[in-house]
Amino acid sequence: MAIPMHDLATQYAALRDSINARIQKVLDHHQFILGPEVKELEERLQAYTGSKHCVTVASGTEALLIALMALDVKPGDEVITTPFSFIATAEVIALVGAKPVFVDVEPDTCNLDVTKLETAITPRTRAIMPVSLYGQPCDMDEINAIAARHGIPVIEDAAQSFGATYKGRKSCNLSTIGCTSFFPTKPLGCYGDGGALFTNDDAIATAAREIRVHGQSKRYVHTRIGLGGRMDTIQCAVVLAKLERFEWEVEQRQRIAARYAALLAPLADRVTVPVVRGDRTSVYAQYTVQVPDRTKLQAKLQEAGIPTAVHYPVPMHKQPAYAELGTYPPMAVAEYLAERVVSLPMDAYMDEARQRTVVERLATALTSLGQKAA
Ligand SMILES: *Cc1c(COP(=O)(O)O)cnc(C)c1O
């Protein structure tokens, strides 16, 4: 059997009855927009994260965009973020007319380097948007403390980290706003696009709820400029079904990550495994290692039937559309990581045999590239 990057088929087989029943219920009541499952999911996610408010939206990108709109970020403003993320993070900043200001990342966690944060703050800084990359929260206490000193809100891009913890608290509930994604291959995914915004601030929650329905505060009363950004009832039904096994899946991901680290230990001179700080957990949205000669290695692995992916090959300040937004200083760590990172197959349903096959073929590929053990 071919090894998938993320095994959605086995997950569906395990949850088939409840997913089908939940979807069938929506087909029967046919409240496809803002139906009862939307509220049910929002309440479940509030309870899960401990956040006072959860607003489901059309995607993770939309959650980030609505967060910036709710904070009234405007043209001429600056928003600080990482250069090493999925493009959506910088894209939404540009979409509201603000300038993304990049702060380089740490070489081991690949998350924003908080020691470089404060010097990037200017009188125009209107928000800080760290990304909990690969499923691990950033140094949120330090980021929040710097932001508080300057009176700036913090938006956690938690698209990859739903379910992770930081000092015992849940990702998405670690700052002014937390935004996540239910893209099918994220740790908690639906069967299309979906996302959610979390906050403990009543005014931000109201703004977000209005913005996702065209800025409407009452039917046909548009108090602010919004967009069509709701999450479909059917997609909420899918997430509700998947929540049944979510905690178990998170534990599995962590167990599988630990097994990867053990299996990869003999290759430590050629493969650097991910680092997770002691005061937090990762949900391993990706299991991303660092290797030299990545492109050749990926080709070898593809020949051997092992899929890999690169998250992400080009830092955002080097993307053509963004290079024009400002002159960015070199981001040495992000640029280094962009050449070295490669993600291996990872999901909650990966059995030990499959995982051993991945590591054995990886070892063979490294040897055939002339990278023998030291
Ligand atoms: C997936 C992702 C997004 C966007 O989420 P969508 O639901 O695909 O719009 C944003 N930021 C990060 C870091 C992501 O991984």
Largest sheet: 4 strands, mixed
End-to-end separation in angstroms reads 33 Å
Mean pLDDT: 96
Beta fraction: 5-15%
Can you tell me the CATH class of the largest domain?
Answer: Alpha Beta
Task: Give the helix tally.
Answer: 12
Tell me the number of structural domains: 2
Helix content: 25-40%
Query: Per the principal axes of the C-alpha atoms, what is the gross shape?
Result: globular
Report the structural category: alpha/beta
The assembly state of the depicted protein chains is single chain
CATH topology of the largest domain: Aspartate Aminotransferase, domain 2
Kindly state the number of beta strands: 13
Strand neighbour order, sheet with most strands: 1-9-8-5
Low-confidence stretches: none
| CATH superfamily placement of the largest domain | Type I PLP-dependent aspartate aminotransferase-like (Major domain)
Radius of gyration: 21 Å
Task: Provide structural commentary.
This protein is an alpha/beta fold and 374 residues long. The chain folds into two domains: 8-103 and 110-243, Type I PLP-dependent aspartate aminotransferase-like (Major domain) (Aspartate Aminotransferase, domain 2, 3-Layer(aba) Sandwich); 246-369, Aspartate Aminotransferase, domain 1. It has twelve helices and 13 strands. It has helices at 8-29, 36-49, 60-70, 88-95, 140-150, 202-211, 233-243, 246-264, 294-303, 320-323, 332-340, 352-368, and strands spanning 53-57, 78-81, 99-102, 125-129, 155-157, 165-166, 169-170, 177-181, 195-199, 216-218, 221-222, 287-290, 341-344. The strands form five sheets. Strands 1-9-8-5 form a four-stranded mixed sheet, sandwiched between helices. A hairpin with a 2-residue loop joins strand 6 (165-166) and strand 7. Helix 3 runs parallel beside helix 4 (88-95), helix 3 packs across helix 6 and helix 8 packs parallel to helix 12 (352-368). The radius of gyration is 21 Å and the shape is globular. The mean pLDDT is 96.
